[in-house]
Amino acid sequence: MIGRKDEPFVRDGEAEWQPAGEGVVRKVLTYSDRVMMVRVRFEAGAVGPPHSHPHVQCTLVESGVFDVTIAGRTERLRAGDSFLVPPHAEHDARNIEAGTLLDVFTPMRRDFV
After folding, report:
1. Helix (H, G, I), strand (E, B) or coil at 13
2. Which PANTHER family does the annotation name (predicted)?
């Protein structure tokens, strides 16, 4: 199952991991038409390639170490750090130490469901 639309409570085990690139899987947790929460797990060395989208994205580094580039600026982020991606800004994430990101998008990513 891919997440739960408009469900106020979702247990982690209720959503399945889906492939999202080499060494990357994602789990859509909960969403409505206006917002979506997604957990993304990276194996060591995996890359989320450069891309952009019309959504605002807020991300929390749950675990691991990532080099994140947003609009040409790169920072090394660790567990507890976060970042904000404005609409249409090119961005990527390069995993340094295996870890997990928690993404929130507004509006929701229709291409994920």
Report:
1. helix
2. H2HPP ISOMERASE (PTHR40112:SF1)
Please check whether residue 100 is in contact with residue 59, taking contact to mean a CB–CB distance below 8 angstroms. Answer: no
Q: What is the pLDDT of residues 40-77, one digit of tens each?
A: 999 999 999 999 999 999 999 999 999 999 999 999 99
Helix, strand, coil fractions of the chain, as percent rounded to 5? 5, 60, 35
Least confident of 12-16, 36-40, 109-113: 12-16
Domains and CATH numbers, the chain: 4-112 (2.60.120.10)
Nearest to 85 by CA among 65, 102, 105, 108: 105
CA distance linking residue 81 with residue 91, whole number of Å: 16
Q: Find out whether 1 and 29 touch, Cβ atoms under 8 Å.
A: no
